[in-house]
Write a structure and sequence with these properties.
The chain is of the alpha+beta class. Helix content is 27%, strand content 26%. The strands form two sheets. Strands 3, 4, 5, 6, 7, 8, 9, 10, 11 and 12 form a ten-stranded antiparallel β-sheet that branches. A hairpin with a 2-residue loop joins strand 1 and strand 2. Helix 5 packs antiparallel against helix 6.
Length: 279
């Protein structure tokens, strides 16, 4: 085979690699991500110019059972446990009861409370996990007495013998609410809160509001307890809140609803009593 000189030159000539093409600019400014610092302290309204902070909160759990033909052994067991608790008769289940437990230490629910709920008084009952609720108190930054709000107010409501009725339910907002500005969120919550305050000022209802992010089986965000002397105003309060912007536009899920009437309440701790020594 005869190869001429020109072909040899072409075969031995080095192939030049083109320089890399720089990435095309998007026209958008580069985003600098700041480190995220978790805020784990609760904040209240300043008092005489001094900030209020607290790193304690109250955890509240509702456990519901059916198959209870005689509630007295349950009441006796809860009373003897010494736990801060209330026992409800389930209005929608003639064999049903609910046990409301409170503690600043959430490990209590895995230890002492667990021992109570698997003890002899409960061994013949059937748990209803669809109704289990667990939440914690939280601050909005506007509380005039932060410690009382976080640790004692819920106890006064749940253990008040003048408030035997309770409606408990979880809820979850749609994600779009979390993208609103704080101002828009505040206006929506203010409208919603005005309805509740109207009932509260007449002594018809008090509310217990708990956060349950990451604590709820069904990924709910809040646990609500409506407590009062009579059942009808609590039901009417739920209805009157339905037209508010929060409920009509930003609630994804509500319920199930547990409706109970108190058959036992532990004594209110002295530390939780109001300034007059009462509820």
């Amino acid at each position: 085979m005869i190869i001429n000189k020109c072909e040899v030159n072409r075969m031995t000539q080095k192939t030049e690699v083109p320089p890399p093409v720089p990435p095309r600019e998007s026209g958008r400014p580069q985003v600098t991500m700041e480190p995220f610092v978790p805020e784990l302290i609760e904040h209240g309204a300043p008092v005489r110019g001094e900030p209020q902070t607290l790193n304690n909160r109250l955890f509240v759990q509702l456990q519901v059972f059916t198959g209870c033909l005689d509630p007295e052994p349950v009441v006796e067991a809860v009373r003897n446990s010494g736990l801060e608790a209330a026992v409800y008769a389930n209005l929608n289940d003639p064999r049903g009861i609910g046990v409301l437990l409170m503690s600043e230490d959430p490990s209590l629910f895995a230890k002492t409370a667990r021992g109570l709920l698997i003890g002899p008084a409960f061994s013949g009952l059937t748990p209803l996990p669809d109704f289990t609720m667990l939440g914690r108190t939280y601050s909005s930054g506007r509380e005039p007495n932060l410690e009382d709000f976080l640790l004692y107010k819920v106890r006064r409501h749940a253990l008040n013998p003048d408030y035997p009725w309770g409606i408990w339910y979880p809820l979850r907002r749609i994600g779009a609410f979390n993208r609103l500005s704080r101002g828009d969120q505040g206006r929506i919550l203010m409208e919603h809160g005005t309805v509740g305050r109207g009932y509260g000022e007449l002594g018809l209802a008090v509310d217990i509001r708990l956060e349950c992010h990451g604590l709820d089986r069904d990924d709910n965000e809040f646990v609500i307890g409506l407590i009062g002397p009579e059942l009808y105003p609590l039901s009417k309060l739920v209805k009157d809140m339905r037209p508010t912007v929060q409920t009509s536009e930003y609630i994804q899920d509500m319920g199930p609803f547990f409706v109970g009437h108190v058959i036992y309440q532990a004594s209110l701790p002295d530390s939780a009593k109001g300034g007059s020594g009462g509820y």
